[in-house]
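Example record

One chain of 68 residues, shown exactly as stored in the release files.
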Amino acid sequence: MMLQLNPSMPVKTPQGVAMAIGWIDYGPEHDLIWIVIDDNTRECWCVGNRDIRFGSNETYGRKIPKDK
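Predicted structure tokens for this chain:
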């Protein structure tokens, strides 16, 4: 199953900061695959769920840990 994110969401990936525009779910025995656009290079990448991190969001009380 594919899902287009509307609105897209800013995320952190191993390549850097990107905008997540969608994800692919291959089923219960697979990780989600995030479709992201790299902020610096404008390249489109597919990134595994274990490599995606969301940034801080004070509105929702999500803060960056002090050790990061």
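Notes: Residues 2-54 form one domain.
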